[in-house]
């Protein structure tokens, strides 16, 4: 093994050195998130051996049945972050209201929003899951209310996700490109392995849950019909399809070999404009995808420009290779 390896800590400290007012708080915050993710990685990896699989027989704020690991991973994130003095508050997919910093700890200048275990329907079948996070600045000294979290994705200072797959990987942006780090389990450090990730502009792979086809709107139907028609259709080439049912895994694949992911608006339930959540799924992924040269949209609006109206707001989500997403946006405009 080469001795030229760059650890995540070194990478972040070197990036922060370039910023005039950096105080080290951000480095500490990221370090705490990463520590939590290493603990989660360990639990996910041990699985049935430590009795963490299966349902918790409770529901979260979205009305979804919680897995034991949804609750365990949420607790790990909260406990790793609440004491640090770097946060004004947190918000989690698993908790209805913003999570306050306990009185005994100082409050800091950032807010973190997270999905502690994305793709958790995959957990019992030993498929890839992940943790997604988004970091915003917070006015110092305030006790943040829900409104303080409801900021556009363009205001994110950092977004990332950790993938618990065959390797545990962290993908990160602070607005200066996207980098990937692989956890060296023996030394417990994330090592820079994927520098400046860029999504290929052209691709011939799509990801969508085809079982919802009858509920899609015409622009999405048209796009997928044309892909499925392959060489014989208007696109004149064959497409491949993937669906992992784990957003982290789909985004990671797209970062590496291009393609599009769609969880579009559909007509199943008028109270739900989409399935995925803006604040801790769509926004962080949009920041990463755009930083890697891709696009991320509802079909009609850029995700990062949306003005949020609630912490658990759902949005249609279409992301991936630039040329394909531009085509899908054009189909929506022609609709
Ligand atoms: O967090 C929601 C999520 O699990 C995503 O990770 C994934 O992309 C999607 O839901 C899967 O949806 P479905 O169950 O409809 O396939
Ligand atoms: Mn999720």
TrEMBL record:
Mg(2+) 1 binds at residues 93, 115, 117. Pathway: Carbohydrate biosynthesis. Residues 199-332 form the Fructose-1-6-bisphosphatase class 1 C-terminal domain. SUPFAM superfamilies: Carbohydrate phosphatase (SSF56655). Its EC number is 3.1.3.11. It is found in: Cytoplasm. Keywords: Carbohydrate metabolism, Cytoplasm, Hydrolase, Magnesium, Metal-binding. It catalyses: beta-D-fructose 1,6-bisphosphate + H2O = beta-D-fructose 6-phosphate + phosphate. Pfam families: FBPase (PF00316), FBPase_C (PF18913). Substrate binds at residues 118-121, 209, 275. Binds 2 magnesium ions per subunit. GO terms for molecular function: fructose 1,6-bisphosphate 1-phosphatase activity. Residues 7-194 form the Fructose-1-6-bisphosphatase class I N-terminal domain. Its cofactor is Mg(2+). Its main location: cytoplasm. InterPro entries: FBPase_C_dom (IPR044015), FBPase_class-1 (IPR000146), FBPase_N (IPR033391), FBPtase (IPR028343). Mg(2+) 2 binds at residues 115, 118, 281. The keyword Ribonucleoprotein does not apply. Homotetramer. Belongs to the FBPase class 1 family. NCBIfam families: PRK09293.1-1, PRK09293.1-3, PRK09293.1-4. This is Fructose-1,6-bisphosphatase class 1. The lineage of its organism: Bacteria, Pseudomonadati, Pseudomonadota, Gammaproteobacteria, Methylococcales.
């Amino acid at each position: 093994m080469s001795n030229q390896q760059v650890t995540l800590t070194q990478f972040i400290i070197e990036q922060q050195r370039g910023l005039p007012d950096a105080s080290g708080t951000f480095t500490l915050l990221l370090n705490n998130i990463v520590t939590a993710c290493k603990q989660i990685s360990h639990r996910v990896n041990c699985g049935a051996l430590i009795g963490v699989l299966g349902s918790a027989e409770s529901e979260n704020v979205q009305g979804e049945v919680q897995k034991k690991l949804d609750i365990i991973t949420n607790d790990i994130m909260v406990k790793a972050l609440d004491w640090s003095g770097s946060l004004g508050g947190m918000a989690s997919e698993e908790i209805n209201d913003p999570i306050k910093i306990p009185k005994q700890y100082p409050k800091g200048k950032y807010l973190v929003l997270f999905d502690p275990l994305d793709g958790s329907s995959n957990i019992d079948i030993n498929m890839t899951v992940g943790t997604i996070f988004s970091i915003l600045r917070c006015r110092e000294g305030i006790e943040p209310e829900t409104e303080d979290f409801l900021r556009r994705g363009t205001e994110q200072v950092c977004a990332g996700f950790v993938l618990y797959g065959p390797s545990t990987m962290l993908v990160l942006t602070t607005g200066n490109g996207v980098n990937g780090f692989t956890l060296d389990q023996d030394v417990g450090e994330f090592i820079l392995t994927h520098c400046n990730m860029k999504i290929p502009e052209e691709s011939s792979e799509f990801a969508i849950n085809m079982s919802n086809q009858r509920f899609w709107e015409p622009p999405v139907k048209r796009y997928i019909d044309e892909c499925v028609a392959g060489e014989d259709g208007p696109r004149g080439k064959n497409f491949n399809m993937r669906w992992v049912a784990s957003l982290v895994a789909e985004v990671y694949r797209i970062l590496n070999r291009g393609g599009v992911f769609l969880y579009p608006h559909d007509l199943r339930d008028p109270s739900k404009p989409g399935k995925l959540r803006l604040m801790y799924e769509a926004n962080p992924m949009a920041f990463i995808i755009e930083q890697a040269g891709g696009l991320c949209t509802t079909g009609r609006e850029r995700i990062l420009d949306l003005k949020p109206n609630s912490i658990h707001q759902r949005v249609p989500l279409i992301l991936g290779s630039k040329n394909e997403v531009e085509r899908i946006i054009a189909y929506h405009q022609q609709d």
